[in-house]
Amino acid sequence: MGLGGLCAALAAFAPGSAKADVDEALALGHHHKDKQKKKEEERAKREAAATGGSGAAAMMGPRVGGHVAAVIPFLSVTDEDTTVIFGDFFTVGLAPGITLHLNERWALDFEFIAFSRWQFEDDGTPASVSTSFVLDPGVIYDFGAFKGGLRLAMQVGEGVPFNGGIVPIIIKGFPITEHLKWFVELDLPFFVTGAPGDAGISFSPQIQTGIAF
Q1: Least confident interval from 56-70, 92-106, 197-211
Q2: Contact, 108 vs 102, CB < 8 A?
Q3: Which residue from 87, 90, 114, 116 puts its CA 20 to 30 A from 105's CA?
Q4: Any bridge partners for residue 203, and if so which?
């Protein structure tokens, strides 16, 4: 009777112990999955923050954005003269653009700038006004802390000579919402111009600021 009771006790104990081991293993497995899921969510948040909240869209492929901004040239250097804003002229431009984000780093930007210029009277030369248009598509790379790029440009308008230019740019963005940014951009346009019997160069650094999306 004593031996039988001992065997019965052992038989009853063994299945319960096995079940406890299985439950413990399942609990450990779920805990590991939860930790892995949490790590993946944190990594996705970091990637989204690094791309201004658009990390998921960037990983899915190209997406379309754009910007609209005001442009103010503050200096004009040519092979003939150097002039400064407010002292010799005042110019303001309007710059809409369409941006194709290829991935989280690279983008193609198709920009158009309409300039209106007031040239002040100088040494007997009467004041004058003019309006011109610039096409300046380019490529932009996101370095993280800022963006940089290079545009190719051409001035269009009546009386504008044959010309071509390159425009290095530096951009700093400040998030407003998940999909909107206020940005400040430094443009450094360098142009070569030509006309029958005459050629020249110009350099007109300018500040651009506006909203990007």
Answers
A1: 56-70
A2: yes
A3: 114
A4: 77, 190
Query: Quick one: 37 exposed, middle or buried, by C-beta within 10 A (0-12, 13-18, 19+)?
Result: exposed
- Cβ contacts of 75 within 8 Å, gap of 6 or more: 82, 83, 84, 85, 203, 204, 205
Global pTM? 0.69
Q: What is the pLDDT of residues 56-66, one digit of tens each?
A: 443 457 999 99
Is the torsion defined by CA of 97, 101, 105, 110 positive or negative?
A: negative
- The per-residue b/e assignment along 186-203, b for 16 or more CB within 10 angstroms, e otherwise, is ebebbbebeeeeeeeebe
